Amino acid sequence: MLRYGLRRLGWAVPTVIGIVAVGFVLTHILPGDPVQAMIGEFPAPEGYAEHIREKFGLDRPLPVQFWLFLTSLLRGDLGYSFAHNAPVTDIIFTRAGATLALMIPSLVLASVLGVVFGAIGARRAGSRSDVAVTAFTVSGQSVPVFWLAMMLILVFSVRLGLFPVTGMTSISAPESGFGRFTDFLRHLVLPMVTLTLAYMTVVARVARSAMIESLQEDYILTAEAKGLKNGEILRKHVLRNSLPPIITVIGFNFGYCLTGAVLTETVFGWPGIGSLFIQAVTNRDYPVIEGVFVLSAIAVVLVNLIVDLLYALINPKIRRAHAVA
Amino acid sequence: MLWRRPGRRLLNNLSGRVSAVYILVLVIVALVGPLVISKDPSQISRSVLKPPSPSAWFGTDQLGRDQLARLVDGARVSLLVGVVAAGMAVIVGVLVGAFAGFFGGWLDIALMRVSEFFQVMPTLIVAVAIVALIGPGLFNIILVIAMLSWPQTARVTRGEVLRVKQLEYIDVARCQGRPEWRILLREVIPNAIPAVMPLIALCVAEAILQEASISFLGLGSPDTISWGLLLHDGQQNLLRAWWMSVIPGVATFITVLAFNLLGDSVSAALNPRLRLIGRVRRRVKI
Amino acid sequence: MSAPILSINDLQVTYHASDRQVFALQGATLKAGASETIGVVGESGSGKSTIARAALGLLPSGVAEITGGSIAINGRDVTGLRRRDWQPLRGKPIAMVFQDPLSFLNPVMRVDRQIGEAIRRHAPQRSTKDRVVDLLELVQLPASVARSYPHELSGGMRQRVLMAVALACEPSLLIADEPTTALDVTTQAEIVKLLRDIQRTLGVSVLLISHNLAVVAELCDQMYVMYAGRVVESGPADEILSHPGHPYTYGLMTAARSLRDADGRYATIAGDVPSLAERFVGCPFAARCPVAMEHCTQLAPPPTSVAGQANHVAACWHLVEGKGRDDHRDIAGAGARHEGVQA
Predict the structure, then answer these.
(1) Confidence of residue B9 (pLDDT cuts 50, 70, 90)
(2) pLDDT-based confidence at residue B109 (cuts at 50, 70, 90)
(3) What does the DSSP assignment read for C71-110?
(4) Interface touch A292/B125, C-beta < 8 Å
(5) Mean pLDDT of the region C36-60
(6) What is residue C226's three-state secondary structure?
(7) Higher pLDDT, A312 or A195
(8) Do A223 and C117 touch (CB under 8 A)?
(9) Of C20, C15, C19, nearest to C53 (Cα)?
(10) Confidence of residue C330 (pLDDT cuts 50, 70, 90)
(11) Could you tell me if A141 and A227 are in contact, meaning their C-beta atoms sit under 8 angstroms apart?
(12) B275–C18: do the CB atoms touch at under 8 Å?
């Protein structure tokens, strides 16, 4: 298990270096002034350009430049945004909370609902409920997330007036306490529903095929011959054996979920990293763009690493094999 | 002969048939529509934000431009981006996958690592970051989308090449002393292609969605009308003009859906085995 | 006499594939009473496994269809039962041990949980943990196996675990579908011995399905010989083995008795197992039968008692036409000419 973990970690490191390399190529090598790319189009103080040139060794050979770039990133230095007048790392971390508050419940809900929907489809492949599940998942993958968000606003906020249109809090909300929390929840519903819908179809699709596969296995016959009830077979035998591919997909599509979060935040004016990113794009605030890119990519790698370890944990073969080895 | 039966099976599949017809109609509309519709999609007028009416079927936008004309014009861009980007992605993916699978070893490991890297990345964030830095423009957007969507094709091709390369006739070709790259190009890749076919349609669907997202975020070139741009304008006027967001959104949704369904039916048509499994799989009903 | 635990009468099962049909069972009759050991012998594709699955309502739904005949459990007709209604009948009166012990055990569940599930389902009042150990002991496995995963066990151990799972249901009839096929010869012998021990100590009936005549001969009192979806001969095992009534049975016995004959050839029955893509009009064995007569291919022979024994029945025209026992043996002997691959 430990060895397996270390090996996965060994894979993650070059991937992170790859991400940094892409960031480096974007700022240093592509046509355009690298200094400009690292300051953005906001007026910077006198001499700051000189400082950047110095810091990243822009007159030195490319490998040296890459090394300087890499080490400054490793120190957590993502540059300084003059649009916000703050270090990029700080800006991103103040926004991270809102994004996590949106993403974590959506991810959890989408995973659970995705598995449930997948099970409904797999239970009787080819039946009417299965066709419905399949139609739902294909539609979910075809609908632009941001448009889904807009339609939810039109229906539930504008038409029915159930939820606020944008933002994370109302100005009129109480400063603290329970009232503030319910206010937050009311704002959370629509963005969360959007993200959940978009993501759960991905999970449902994989869960369905994984469960159909697992229902094919011989041990299901044994379970049936024992006289187990259908629900029991589904929960204890089918689900457990379908979990590895499902978990892999949940991790594999974390990047997709981040993308969805960016779009959802933009439509709902949710003050997270996504809107920060889009704002930065509009402002040509390059250090923030670069920072969000690098950090989100690293987050994706980390999540996939965790998923790989989880995968090993629920798969006794890997667990034992590596414990013995 | 090999292709006739899948073709018929594809036509037997209702969703595949409907999707194919829809796509055909859409292509015709995109090609001849602007000639038929007399209105100029960029013509500003004083009738601003007018809801759908007999004079403007799909209403007008904040500058009084006719939404129907813009929608038809936008279909061109969306389809163009979708098809060109998907085409590039599939070609790159087939080549990468074929090389990785055929030559194996370190090349394989490295190429697959790279493709996995691209697959897990938050594509939109990467795309937007790149477009923001290299500048908007149709070609840049196509390039970025293609760059981010080849990995799936590469993986499928690689798997297929691994299977094909151990078939006996490849050994026969080897024994005839044919050079490796020729075997790869003449024997291996053509036999791996059928597995890739369904991905073409799926890639187009993905590319149309990507383009819509990028343009929606305001990163498309402002003078090219695309459905993403219409949705961008639609969001700006969401509370005042529902038609500006509903109509282009429905168009995008249905088009992407059609390509996805087409891809699914192509794969069902090419793999009758899967269908049989579908039947046998009903073995256990729970 | 009370009703038999399992009674299958003239059962017919058809599999529907997308482009063809397979008539897997074309009329099979079988009975299993209390404390009996019954063997079903036949080549692969003869319908043995189909019978076993039909008895537990485990035929692939949507693919298999019962087109005729009946199944009764403890006297209750269960032929047309829906899948949901089968569930309470599984395990307790009839439990099943499957062929391939690895694929029939859940790979991500420990052994104790897989056995425990069956205990909780059928005997919830007992302490599961102790019972698991008891059952493992019964199938002669150490208690430490309880905490193992299937892939950590040997083939023979897995087969014993599967037996423990089946016994946990406290069945009165244990169906063992080719329980020794996936194992090596010594392990096979152990499993057969274990089956016999279990049958004696617990008094359960055992229905053993095998292509291996020797295994069946060793273990069973009653015997059914299947060919091409039909039972061609049935009766007490001793009776059948000493006086086979059907040419096919005789061929099987000769093939089993001497793997090679004097010329160093493998003893086989000439010809191939027929495909089951159509229903047979006459005797299914006619095409391979060395003593086939003209009307064998046209009319199905009725079950006829062999050598005056009422409980020993075979379906062969030669019996109907009243050939003497010795005559018949000559005929059957001719059918067992040694042909096949050079050793």
Answers:
(1) low
(2) confident
(3) EEETTEE-TT--HHHHGGGBTTTEEEE-S-TTTTS-TTS-
(4) yes
(5) 85
(6) strand
(7) A195
(8) yes
(9) C15
(10) very low
(11) no
(12) yes
Q: Do C290 and C319 share a structural domain?
A: yes
Q: Looking at residue C160, which CATH number applies to its domain? A: 3.40.50.300
Q: What is the pLDDT of residue C62?
A: 72
CB atoms within 10 A of CB B93: 26
In chain C, the number of structural domains is 2
Q: State yes or no: pLDDT of A83 exceeds 50.
A: yes
Tokens found for residue C118? 């069956």
Which residues are CB-neighbours of C257 under 8 A, at least 6 positions away?
A: C267
Query: Strands C37-41 and C222-227: what pairing?
Result: parallel
- A90 touches C: beta carbon within 8 Å: no
> Would an 8 Å CB–CB cutoff place C170 in contact with chain A?
no
How far apart CA A132 and CA A212 sit, in angstroms, is: 16
Chain B residues in contact with C18 (beta carbon < 8 A): 275-276, 279
- Report the gap between the CA of A206 and the closest CA in chain B (Å): 15
Q: CA A144 → CA B26, B152, B206, C221, C322, distances in Å?
A: 19, 20, 10, 70, 82
* Residue contacts between A and B (CB atoms, under 8 Å): 158
- Which chain B residues have a beta carbon less than 8 Å from that of C63? 279-280, 282-283
User: A18, B123: Cβ pair inside 8 Å?
Assistant: no
Residue A323 has pLDDT above 70, yes or no: no
Q: What pLDDT sits at residue A190?
A: 92
Question: In chain A, which residues have their Cβ closer than 8 Å to the Cβ of C166?
Answer: 225
Rounded to an integer, what distance in angstroms lies between the CA atom of residue C202 and that of residue C204? Answer: 5
Closest-CA residue in chain A for C116? A226
Res B10: pLDDT? 54
Host domain of residue C267 = 244-338
Question: Among B183, B15, B29, which Cα is nearest to B101's?
Answer: B183
Residue C343 placed within a domain: no
Domain end point (choices C196, C225, C254): C225
Q: Is residue C239 one of the residues assigned to a domain?
A: no
Q: From chain B, pick out residues whose CB is under 8 angstroms from the CB of A293.
A: 125-126, 129
Give tens-digit pLDDT for A8-67: 777 788 888 888 888 777 776 665 666 776 777 677 777 777 777 777 777 778 788 888
Given a contact as 3+ CB pairs under 8 Å, which chains touch C? A, B
Say yes or no: C82 contacts chain A, CB-CB below 8 A.
Answer: no
CATH code assigned at A192: 1.10.3720.10
> Chain C contact for B46, CB < 8 A?
no
Q: Give the pLDDT score at C257.
A: 65
| Structural domain boundaries enclosing A252 | 2-324
Domain ranges of chain B: 65-285
As its CATH architecture, domain B65-285 has Orthogonal Bundle (1.10)
Asked if C257 and C329 sit in the same domain, the reply is yes
pTM metric for this prediction: 0.81
Number of domains in chain A: 1
Same domain for C318 and C215?
Answer: no
* Distance in Å, alpha carbon of A229 to nearest chain C alpha carbon: 7
Interface contact B126, partner A, CB < 8 A: yes
User: Residue A233: closest CA among chain C residues belongs to which residue?
Assistant: C117
Return the residue of A nearest to B261 by Cα: A138
Boundary-marking domain end, from C225, C256, C290: C225
The per-residue pLDDT for A204 is 93
